[in-house]
Amino acid sequence: MSIELTPEQARLLAELANGGEARIPDLAARLSLDQAQVAAAATLLAQAGLVTLREEPYSEWSITDVGRGFVEAGPPEWRVLHLLAERGSATLGDLPALTGLDVKDVGQSIRPVTALGWVEKSGTDLQVTPAGRAAISAVYPPLAALERLADGERLTGTALQAEGIDPGAIIAIYGPKSRYFDIREKVHRYAALTEAGRSLAQSGVQARREVTQLTPELLASGEWREVRFKPYDISLATEPRHPGKRHPLQLVIDRVRRAFLEMGFEEASSSWVESSFWDFDALFQPQDHPAREMQDTFYVSRPERTPLPADAELVARVRAAHEDGGGTGSAGWQYRWDPRKAEKNILRTHTTATTIRALAAEPTGARKVFCLGKVFRREAIDYKHLPIFIQVDGIILDERASFSSLLGTLGAFYERMGFSKYYFRPGFFPYTEPSVEVYIWHEEKQDWFEMGGAGIFRPEVTEPLGCTSPVLAWGLGIDRLAMLLYDLKDIRDLYLADTEWLKGVPRCR
Amino acid sequence: MPVIGIPVEELRSRLGREIDNDALLTLLGNIGCDVDGYAQLRRAQCARCGFVMELAGKEEVPPRCDRCSTELRDVAGAARELSPIDVIRMELLAVRPDLFDPAGLARGLRGLLSVETGLARYEVGPPQLRLRVDPSVRRESSLRPAIACAVLENVTLDDDRIKIVMKLQENLHWAIGRDRKHASIGVYDLDSLGSLDPVEGFHLEYTTEPPDFRFVPLGATAPAPAGLQSGHEILETHPKGMAYAHLLAGFDRYPILRTTAERRVLSMPPIINSEETKVHLGSRRFFIDVTGSGPRIVQRTLSILVTSLLEMDRAITARAVELVDEGGARQTPDLTPQRAVIDAERAGRLIGIPLDVPTLESLLLRMRHGVEKHDGTTVTVLVPAYRNDILHERDLMEDVAIAHGYDNIPRTLVPTLTVGREHPRELASEAAREVLLGLGAHEILNLVLTAPESSDELLGLPAHPATVLLDNPITSEQTQLRTGLLPGLLQTFARNRHHPLPQRIFEVGDVTYLDATAETGAREVRHLGLGVIAPHAGFAEARALAEAVVREWGMSLALRACEQPFLLSGRSAWILAPDGRRIGVFGEVHPETLTRLGLQNPAIVLELVVPVRGELESYRALPLDR
Known about the structure:
The complex is a heterodimer of chains A (509) and B (626).
Chain A: H1 7-19, E1 22-23, H2 24-31, H3 35-47, E2 51-63, H4 65-68, H5 76-87, E3 89-91, H6 95-99, H7 103-115, E4 119-122, E5 125-128, H8 130-135, H9 141-149, E6 155-156, H10 157-162, H11 167-174, E7 181-193, H12 195-203, E8 210-211, H13 216-221, E9 228-229, H14 248-262, E10 266-267, E11 273-275, H15 276-279, E12 300-302, H16 312-323, H17 339-343, E13 345-347, H18 352-361, E14 367-376, E15 388-397, H19 403-416, E16 422-429, E17 432-442, E18 447-457, H20 459-462, E19 471-477, H21 478-486, H22 492-495, H23 499-504
Parallel strand pairs in A: 8-9, 10-14
Antiparallel strand pairs in A: 1-7, 2-6, 2-7, 3-5, 4-5, 11-13, 14-15, 15-19, 16-17, 17-18, 18-19
Helix pairs in contact in A: 1-3, 1-12, 2-3, 5-7, 14-21
Chain B: E1 3-7, H1 8-12, H2 21-31, E2 35-46, E3 52-55, E4 79-91, H3 102-112, E5 124-133, E6 146-153, H4 159-175, E7 183-189, E8 204-209, E9 214-215, E10 229-230, H5 231-237, H6 239-244, E11 254-259, E12 265-268, E13 272-273, E14 286-292, H7 295-312, E15 317-325, E16 328-332, E17 338-343, H8 344-351, H9 357-366, E18 370-374, E19 378-383, H10 393-404, H11 424-438, E20 442-443, E21 449-450, E22 469-470, E23 480-481, H12 486-495, E24 503-514, E25 522-533, H13 539-552, E26 558-561, E27 567-576, E28 582-589, H14 591-596, E29 603-609
Parallel strand pairs in B: 5-8, 5-15, 20-24
Antiparallel strand pairs in B: 1-4, 2-3, 2-4, 6-14, 6-15, 7-14, 8-11, 9-10, 11-12, 12-13, 15-16, 17-19, 18-19, 21-23, 24-25, 25-29, 26-27, 27-28, 28-29
Helix pairs in contact in B: 3-7, 8-10, 9-10
């Protein structure tokens, strides 16, 4: 059997071989180690069968603060005895005045003086007995103990006994909990070698130095070969660490952007401050449409207006589309279009303002464009609403585009986002026709969720821009998707960050 | 979007075919309705006028009757409970007002189910009433120029039907009328109009009267003369008057519809009808008017209402009213279908399905359009007068797609190959994010709407001169767009002050500045912000972080001492571009600022512009040193 001992264990083994059985504190003193170190070493050696441990109970005595007050004159029963011995008798009621003890102490004295047979009690009258008179000249153990312990020393019961003070007699008088003495029950632990330990000690023990940390010095000197690496308790907790992480909403944004980029879309952007012309008019939203009202849209007082596009013909075509359809074959909205309303600046209400700008800038050929960004609606903040949210808009301009390819593209996108089950319901939006609303099935929640709207831009939208091919278009709220993916109940959790939550959200889910 | 309850039995009985509950919901979804599902509604009836109100869940009886404004809630016996009713709850499909009521909805569904297809034809009898339109309704200061009218005969009513008529009226007001602004409807008992002897050939007139003109409005508790109220009083005190007074704001005369013989008032559009002409259970003939902003909208609204009522009870017959103004005479309602042409090949290509003329025709008929004629490639369609939403051939294509069923359209992809390309600003932001994450910071997002108290003032700075301001903020906490990221970082620390330290957070986001050279007068600049709060956070760490970021951009750190009220003097610096322009700032946050935010540990912050394609904007979030 090969046993690897730590230096402490080896020294303990040697000490026990020399000196025989010994108490742990004595061993610690002889080895110049902590008691805890010796105890740990002894326990491990005991587990290895090299050492036996024995426990021996003892009591440890010391004086209490109360006890200190009675060292001089002795405990109350002693003083009562003396008084009665002087006077022969007294009534209970007179004792406090006669002895100078308070009523409580007098009360305390009655049980001992009667139990010890010093006093006879008839009614309230107390009379000293011969035994009482004899006791006065004998040693009274409680008083002897008080005097012995008065300087604060702690002594074992055995030590008191050795000095002629019987601890048993004291306990017989006061019981195990005396108010004069602090008596603690303790054990002495003894260690001794077993046969195996003795023979191992005789055969000579080689100890290895134990280290907690591998150091450059240990590596350089090669000493690492000689030492023992202290094992860790692998179940102990360590300080939590958190990697720097992306915001969960940003992760969803990343995923959406990646999906569109992989599907061949170019990314567009435009300012949050947008003209009504591009946010509404170019999208054939009539100027009295409720979405344009002050109640729903943030208007901007500075900068207040954007001049209409320099291309006057473009503006004229948009105007005509609103008023009577112009050349688009539409009846239009049949009202007088007001260019001043179109100049009013707002905070963009949808990223469609961005995609329609991209379309106007390049209305021909085959293009796929998307824009992901913040949009603004005049909503009061609550658990479901914020005045700001994130939307992604996409358009496909293509001669061969159709409603069928719109549904296919939306399906591909949502599958890419992890939703394989979805359905399309007819939807109605002012600037697309035909239109569709997309619902996705959430497996855990076992429910359908409306995810966004889509359609083919109306001719009244595309033709004034000089665009003759069908343009597929859709808009999707990202916050809603993020709330679903992260199972959030309150949309404010996304923006008004709780950093502990951000730390705690697992990166992969 | 208001949610309506369509009575289930009323709807089913009109479908002409048995259909189970789930199939009915699917069918409604397929036509575009946003259906919540089945529900049971309690019902309460106004004891005075008999109007029936539906109450969802724990909803209480309204304080006043929706129709006659009688007080209901606190008056014993004013409302009686009726048996509950099963309904399908769904959002009002604003673009299809012809589907608002059970009869109109059933008309559409019968088509989809092929129970009854093609154009629903409605006869309109010759007029017996002539109405004069006074030119004053077209004056700028009393402008409600358009009116259309109809008469319905052989009406039989019960409480449910009165309810349906009222509901339909209310929903049309909301969906087409823009809450009565563009169109408002009046329905009257034609037999309560008193003498209809013509005066100068006219039975009725639509005119204006000054605000002190008096009549007895609906809901008045006493007849004339005690119940008389002036138009002015109605707008000030009557519940409906107060609700709609804004529609007559600035008018010096109010619109009035009345008979010519006795000058009996029917209504003061678009506010209130008169009490004596109101519809009751015994009414057998209706007079209906729609007034509003333009002829098209009032006629369309009238057509939808009239056809839905004719659909509700086939015994009802419609009769025209002749309207005469200085432009001449015309008759309403005009239920003549509108003609439109649709090309089969073009429709098929747009939808992405093969479509021949016979298929196209049958799909159109199922959407209740008529087909007048067809040739090899096109179909001439008769669009019913109640369809408010057909502006273009494209709208018919949508109807065709709906009839075909979206589920039956194949899912394809556009065959053209295009190359994905990300925006350079996003590409740059990704690089910034990678660096900041590598420095161990957590990403946060803050709202970009802010206010002076939570931005410039928080930093002890004067208002930023290039801030974009909102005209109609919704709260005083959000009145402008942010011009920097630092206030948001500091407020995030404040919000999270009870959480363990250290906290390292960053944001990569846009700030907005006025810019006269930008098209809309403002533009965004992408910034990054980084903040650390910890017992030992200090200048050295801030400088090290700034250097780390700048190093990743291939630059060396160039600094100039910075004096800002929210940063400790001597422990903050501007970060400079190689050409000397400011591109950012960092430093130890001033104890004054920390204290104001309730922060009990030192913090450092850093803000920098994000270089896009190597271009560095100037940093403008903070003013130059004082």
